[in-house]
Recover the amino acids of this structure.
């Protein structure tokens, strides 16, 4: 991991720390009387704030997780991949893109 | 070492010593147990009395030169300052070459890779003055010098390098000793090489590869904390990166 990836991973970690806390608090609040799809969608559908909140969360997680995956592959992955910076970068971008796409799709499905 | 033999307790100890190269195996010797006997004494006894073909490396025998590090009962140690009584397990001693370095023969490893990392981390002093100028007066009380003093006493034994998980997993990783050395120079006010040095430790395999497992700190025979030095490098390189000095 170089300094560029290190800074990005720490920044996204710092960003996600409060987002995770809010997310957990909302889970506790939302499930206090049981939970239903209608109740969740009632809160999120059409909400710009929740849409932006979770879009930011997804973007940060995609960046953070894909850098972490690159580090894992660098150390524990197949030798041919671990020794190839381009291969590692490709895996990182591909994994990040998948996380971003799946995450934003999920956000869109509860907000739009 | 002769003294240890003379003060023999009358008992012996089974010592398994690595023989051969990477594909070698352990060979067991019965060695007289002496009072205040070090692991290096044991290895020397085997070579002097039982098998003169045993290869190992040592020089000062008093914990200064950093030559005699080996793996003792699974942990990297400086053998000249390691008493057998402190490390023996179930009456048995297992001595192997240092991990993370190619084995030349028996207990001798090729440490080229270890020292090449020092070069790669720019662990060489880059003078900011010529010999014609007055000697710089460095007060031991300055914050920079205190940081340097905390990390400067490395004896280059390779124990931290052998103990490090990241070294084992990432062959490009510079390792605790080289990064610790770089940190002492980063804080040396006489040094003029920090531009290159911070760049060298910021690349893939540099200080940011460290997982803070702290095995280096746990095993360092002279009580240094390379993990703290690496953390310092992470902070310094991050600040330099934000200022645009390291890309």
């Amino acid at each position: 991991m170089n300094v560029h990836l290190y800074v990005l991973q720490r920044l996204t970690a710092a960003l996600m720390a409060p987002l995770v806390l809010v997310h957990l608090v909302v889970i506790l609040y939302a499930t206090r009387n049981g939970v239903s799809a209608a109740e969740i969608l009632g809160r999120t559908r059409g909400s710009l704030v929740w849409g932006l909140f979770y879009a930011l969360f997804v973007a940060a997680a995609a960046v953070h997780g894909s850098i972490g995956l690159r580090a894992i592959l660098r150390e524990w992955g197949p030798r041919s991949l671990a020794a190839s910076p381009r291969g590692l970068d490709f895996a990182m971008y591909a994994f990040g893109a998948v996380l971003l796409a799946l995450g934003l799709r999920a956000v869109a499905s509860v907000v739009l | 070492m002769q003294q240890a033999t003379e003060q023999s307790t009358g008992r012996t100890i089974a010592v398994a010593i690595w023989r051969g190269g990477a594909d070698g195996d352990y060979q067991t010797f019965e060695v007289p147990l002496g009072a205040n006997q070090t692991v290096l004494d044991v290895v020397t006894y085997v070579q002097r009395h039982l098998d003169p073909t045993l290869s190992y490396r040592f020089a000062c025998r008093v914990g200064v030169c950093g030559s005699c590090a080996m793996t003792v009962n699974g942990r990297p140690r400086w053998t000249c300052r390691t008493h057998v009584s402190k490390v023996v397990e179930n009456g048995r001693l297992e001595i192997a070459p240092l991990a993370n370095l190619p084995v030349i023969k028996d207990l001798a490893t090729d440490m080229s890779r270890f020292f090449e990392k020092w070069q790669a981390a720019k662990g060489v002093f880059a003078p900011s003055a010529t010999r014609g100028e007055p000697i710089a007066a460095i007060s031991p009380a300055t914050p920079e010098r205190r940081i340097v003093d905390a990390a400067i006493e490395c004896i280059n034994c390779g124990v931290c390098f052998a103990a490090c998980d990241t070294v084992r997993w990432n062959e490009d990783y510079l390792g605790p000793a080289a990064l610790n050395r770089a940190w002492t120079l980063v804080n040396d006010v006489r040094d003029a090489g920090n531009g290159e040095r911070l760049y060298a430790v910021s690349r893939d395999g540099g200080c940011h590869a460290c997982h803070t497992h702290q095995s280096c700190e746990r095993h360092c025979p002279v009580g240094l904390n390379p993990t703290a030095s690496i953390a310092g490098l992470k902070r310094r390189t991050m600040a330099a990166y934000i200022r645009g000095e390291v890309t």
